[in-house]
Protein: superoxide dismutase
Amino acid sequence: MVVDPNPFSARLRRQIIAFAREGRRLLSNWNEPGGGETLSPKTRLQWEKRFGELEKAAVSVSSFSLYPLLQQVWEGHSRLVRMIRKDLATIQGTEPAEKTGEEVVEETAEDPERNKEKHEDCPTPPKKPVPIGGHVLPPLPYPYEALEPYIDAKTMRLHHDEHHKSYVDGLNKAEIMMAQARKTGNFNLIKHWEREAAFNGAGHYLHTIFWEIMSPKGGGKPSGKLLKQIRKDFGSFEAFKKHFSAAAEKVEGGGWAILVWAPRAQRLEILQAEKHQNLSQWDVVPLLVLDVWEHAYYLKYPNKRKAYIRAWWNVVNWPAVECRYLQARKLFWKPY
Structure:
């Protein structure tokens, strides 16, 4: 068993175990005779086996595998609940409750091993506010070497463990110092700490998205509603890709190219950001982000940003991007 000194990783392990055990409890309590066909004996055995495997994995895998594991067990638990509701409706001779909002889950899937990165299974993050100065470095959702040959392991290690960690530390310090200023009433340095919070906070949040929208199973094109919206707003996926790549290549100094949902304009837009927080827009939601600071690519692509951008498209995790889009597009402001 892995002894995890990181309290954040340890909490993730406990959450995974709790979901897996709750899933097995639901299975053991669902003994209605003559129920619907959704939860057949074969399906129940599959679920019991899968939840058991996930619980065992939670205490043995490295911290870098915890996010995908949490997503798997959450998806399994949620799908199981829907299956039980469907069986209840069959037994009672009623229709299942009508879905609300942007529910895009496949109701008929019963194989727990089904494509784990499908956009239909977008996880719902826990609602737990971060305390002042309590931000933590999220673990990578894959091993350092997982994105090779496109992004090398050494770059990933330095980028995540050193650069991203520095933004987390800088944000925490800025928040603590501003809280102290509120307590003492001394705001002489507030301009400095607000700048620190903007730079490090934007750096932390963008990098957190960056890790999530890449995958060793990435590349190709988006699908579904995201692809439809891209074609509507940019003409074609190819036109979008050329625009995004050019924006990334032309960022002055260090910065980002960002695909966003704009609730006011009610469409997708491509933006640049210098550093992390400059020359961008407010009132938008980032969906796809590309880090073009030199630390993101200089070891493998020295002075070759264009080559790095071209390679990066091979690791884009489009299902994760679509999950962000499906949540963001629920926001609509009055257009002006």
